[in-house]
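Hey L., structure's done. Input below.
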Amino acid sequence: MKSIAADKQNLDALMARLGTAARRASRRLAFMEVCGTHTTSAFRCGLQSVLPENVRLISGPGCPVCVTSQADIDELIGLASKQAVVLCTYGDMLRVPGRSGSLEKIRSQGGRIEVVYSSLDAVALAQREPAHQVVFAAVGFETTAPSTAAAVYQARESGVKNFSVLASHKRIIPAMRALLADRENFKVDGFLCPGHVSVVIGSNAYLPIVRDYSVSCVIGGFEPTLLLSALTCLCELAVENKAALVNQYPQAVTPEGNRHAQSLLMGAFEPADARWRGMGAIPESGYNLRTEFAKYDARIRFGLITPEEREPKGCLCGQVISGKVEPPTCSLFGRACTPVNPIGPCMVSSEGTCAAWFKYKGRLSPYSETPLQETAV
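Output:
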């Protein structure tokens, strides 16, 4: 009971600080989180409903499934359609629609799609079934990219010849830079930086963002107190017209990050231009396997040709993850596009903004009491 009382005391104190800072603001303040776990955590604990009226939290490109370009999704689905391929993927990728269906549809038609919990599971499957080509669909930010690198190392050390990776990994700092480059249309007062990614890349990775764009970066955890603490810090910095890097998650994030994970990642991969949904190609925002690991690159092994980038008609996922619109702005949201019948990845992924909005709010805006529908799934 003491811990519950202490938590309430901390929350009350933070709310008081946040309210004081918000009253000092001469304009409406907007902060962007670039982490899918922050997105769902904020909705789950009802954070938006307790924020001051002039303080908003906007979801950015933090969901790894959502930022994967439609061309990459179509490329993945096309590869999975090949009879000789066993495709290993994380569960969130199954129902993401492509132009010719989804991985779930291919599996229902007899295709071999295996849901794995680790990239090493895919290597183990390749070892057990040497007659099949096993491909791991590698998505995610710097959090999961080192494990993909570990799988490639494992395959090489074990002499596995029937394993390859279709990599669509992303780097968060170039994406933040791409957003900030359009300062006329992109206006935020600070970033709530991801906890998990920051564990790997370290807090110092955000220093160039603060220096080059005069925008605060505050790293936060995922529990209500940690989220509110990070937002309060962002608000206080904004009203003081200060740009700073603050690590509000020191129990997990260090300035230099996880050096072992970084070494593993950069040993197998090198930065490369990458396609992002709704954001186009961003220089050095992804990873390609290094030349010495080229034989594990599924694009090279299968001679894949990247399809044309073409998002689902009417879907605004690209604008949602860029902070340009809120999910209810999309005419498909909650109507043609639902968790049962998703049209875009933001309604599919467990970290998707549309899915979180639909599940926890089911209304036009977390800042509005006007309902979109009677019930939310």
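The chain is about 40% helix and 15% strand. The longest strand covers residues 280-289.

-- N.
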